[in-house]
Each structure stands twice: as C-alpha cells, then as structure tokens.
Design a protein that fits this description.
This is Phytanoyl-CoA dioxygenase family protein. By secondary structure, the protein is an alpha+beta fold. The chain contains six helices and twelve strands. A hairpin with a 5-residue loop joins strand 2 and strand 3. The structure holds 2-oxoglutaric acid. 2-oxoglutaric acid binds next to strand 10 and strand 11.
Amino acid sequence: MRDNATSTIDLDNWNRDGLLVVEDALSARELQELQQWVFDIEHRPGTPNQLLQYDETIADGGTRRCRTENFVPYHDGLRTLLTVGRIPDIASSLLGETAVLYKEKINYKAPGGSGFAAHQDAPAYPYVSNTIACMVAVDDSTLANGCLEIARKMHAAQLPTDARGCVEPEVAENLSWEPLPVSAGSLVFFHCYVPHRSGANTSDSTRRAIYLTYNGESDGQLRESYYAKRIHDLADQPDQLSLIGHFSGTAKPASSSNKEGQA
Ligand SMILES: O=C(O)CCC(=O)C(=O)O
C-alpha cells in the first residue's frame, strides 16, 4: 500500500467530520490484484447461509449481480488485505483501539443499477454502538456511476428513521449532501452515524466498491453473531439486502453464478 495510507491521521478532522478519505491508497499492482479478486468473488455461485450473493433486476429486465456478503471466509487474499495491515490499522487509529472486522460486503452497481436511500449504518448493525465503515473503491467512483454522498458533521447521533430504518425523508431533504467521487484504489472511512446515500449508475460501466465495517476489540468479536442474526432475520424477507431497507432497487438472493453480470 502507498505511504500516504499511513501518513499521520488528523483525529481532529475525523472527530469534526466523521470522515477520512485516503486517495490512491493502493499501488497499481495491489489494485489490479484486488480487481481480479473481486471479479472472482462476483462470479462464484451463492451458497445458502455462506457466500451470500444477490442479484438486481434492472430497468431493461436484465439481472445483474448487485451484492456479495460474507466473503472473507472464502478468499485468502481478501481476508488478509481486509483484516491485517494498513486498512484495519487506520480503522484502529480512528477507533482508538484495535479494530476487528464486524462485516464485509461488495456492492457492484452495474449500469442501470440502483442507489441507496439516505441512511446511517448504526441501526443496521446489532450488538454494537460504535463502528466505522471503510469503502474501498475497486473502480473509479463518479457522479455518473453513483458515488457515495455524505452529510458532513452530522454524526453525533441517530437521526429520526422511517419504517425502513432510513433517515426520515423530510430530515434527509434538509441535510447538506456532498458527493465523494474517488479514484479506484482509494479508501473512504466514515463513522456509523454519518448520513449517506447514493444514486443510480447512469454510466455504461460497473462501479464496484467493498464496504468493510470494523468495531473496537473491546466490544468483542461480533462478525459471526452479525451474520447469524442477519441470516435468521432475513429468512422471511429474502429480497432485503440488509437489516434496514435502504436499497432503492429490486434484489433477490442468487444461488448460481451470474454470467451476464460484469463487463
Ligand atoms: O455503494 C453505494 O452506492 C452505497 C452503499 C451503501 O450505502 C450501503 O450499502 O449501505
């Protein structure tokens, strides 16, 4: 990983904004390897209660892979990159203690793929009150392909939520939204109360992003409990991508590989 990934972290900025962007954190070789690993994971078949694959039906009626959950046990390279070394080290600096992985997902967002309604992560993550997310940009993330948008300095507490667990639409409308386009290989860390959302992918190429969630070691190793609860709670809502209903599209679990997914 490039040196700027370990340059001094400004905790005052982090505490003020709930946000840390590390541009171009991965070297060209690391990025190429990461893109290959993500391609490999995307094209694996889903397995009930293990490698959780989801497909989205997009406007033209086609089906595209939109998300993978729980892949770390099944990929050595990704497990090492995401649980050892600089990414969790930065998360540890921000948490003020050793960061442990709470959950991981890949959002693929194919052309025509849907965005996510304004939400905070905290209500989707049981058993813990303080987590931070790290978005690892696998592809360039742009205004056209539905990059993250955040509301800076709004991470002090939970905002009012609607029935889906998203930020109340009237509250969301009045937040000051800032798009965060970043190049492939960049990292975006944000606190679990940072309101965020994203739009649809209106470009003609897929925008892949890994989202990692870390909690402090003092709160325990919670990853297995999270996935057990997720699998239990979503058993009768298989079309929901998360414990909150923030996805704006139509998704369903996929139990076979997607041949038409990634160009
Ligand atoms: O990937 C995106 O566009 C946003 C994803 C997001 O906010 C989520 O998955 O919770």
